[in-house]
């Protein structure tokens, strides 16, 4: 089992990043690969889940250990596969998801791609009470933008990267056009901050 990969980010694609370590390039599938845009050609540590089936072997990567653990929990839910689990993690923070599970908010859960009422109920049934350990410590962190002293050029670059990440998740140019306007009004933040807010805006439309 590959628990994590530590190395240099060499390539970023629409659904994966390549981390090179000791001359070996590991292709790692991610919810939002463009989150690593700021670390290109730099060393990072990516928490990985080694998904093994008869017909495939994939590495799924996460910046936070909590995201990896939630991914593993989601795979245990009937009707949720790796693609669906990544889509959920790309659209919401761990505490937001845990809160929806604990409140049995089926309406919120069915906003995720591929999640209908039956799957939402199954997630609540399988996960309620098992994830609350992450709720207190993560809650504040997930709602605060990183305060950076950015130039207008850097802000535009972060928003551009966030828009590309949203497109990589399947949203159209038309859908992200209005989101860009809203992100330009938001507080300064990292690419990850902008992607998360953009996804929240898209889920409300």
From TrEMBL:
UniProt-listed InterPro entries: DNA_helicase_Holl-junc_RuvA_I (IPR013849), Hlx-hairpin-Hlx_DNA-bd_motif (IPR003583), NA-bd_OB-fold (IPR012340), RuvA (IPR000085), RuvA_2-like (IPR010994), RuvA_C (IPR011114), RuvA_C_sf (IPR036267)
Database matches in SMART domains: HhH1
GO BP: DNA recombination; DNA repair
Family that this chain belongs to: Belongs to the RuvA family.
Function: The RuvA-RuvB-RuvC complex processes Holliday junction (HJ) DNA during genetic recombination and DNA repair, while the RuvA-RuvB complex plays an important role in the rescue of blocked DNA replication forks via replication fork reversal (RFR). RuvA specifically binds to HJ cruciform DNA, conferring on it an open structure. The RuvB hexamer acts as an ATP-dependent pump, pulling dsDNA into and through the RuvAB complex. HJ branch migration allows RuvC to scan DNA until it finds its consensus sequence, where it cleaves and resolves the cruciform DNA.
Record comment regarding domains: Has three domains with a flexible linker between the domains II and III and assumes an 'L' shape. Domain III is highly mobile and contacts RuvB.
Full protein name: Holliday junction branch migration complex subunit RuvA
């Amino acid at each position: 089992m590959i628990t994590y990969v530590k190395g240099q980010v060499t390539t970023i694609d629409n659904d994966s990043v390549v981390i090179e370590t000791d001359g070996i390039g590991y292709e790692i599938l991610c919810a939002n690969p463009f989150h690593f845009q700021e670390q290109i050609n730099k060393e990072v540590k990516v928490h990985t889940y080694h998904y093994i089936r008869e017909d495939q072997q994939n590495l799924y990567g996460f910046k936070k250990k909590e995201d990896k653990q939630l991914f593993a929990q989601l795979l245990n839910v009937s009707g949720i596969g790796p693609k669906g689990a990544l889509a959920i993690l790309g659209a919401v923070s761990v505490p937001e998801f845990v809160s929806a599970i604990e409140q049995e908010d089926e309406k919120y859960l069915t906003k995720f791609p591929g999640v209908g009422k039956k799957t939402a109920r199954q997630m609540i049934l399988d996960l309620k009470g098992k994830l609350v350990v992450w709720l207190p410590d993560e809650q504040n962190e997930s709602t605060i933008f990183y305060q950076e002293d950015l130039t207008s050029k850097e802000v535009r670059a972060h928003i551009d990267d966030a828009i590309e990440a949203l497109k990589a998740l399947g949203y159209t140019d038309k859908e992200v056009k209005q989101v860009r306007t809203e992100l330009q009004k938001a507080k300064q933040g990292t690419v990850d901050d902008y992607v998360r807010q953009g996804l929240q805006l898209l889920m409300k439309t």
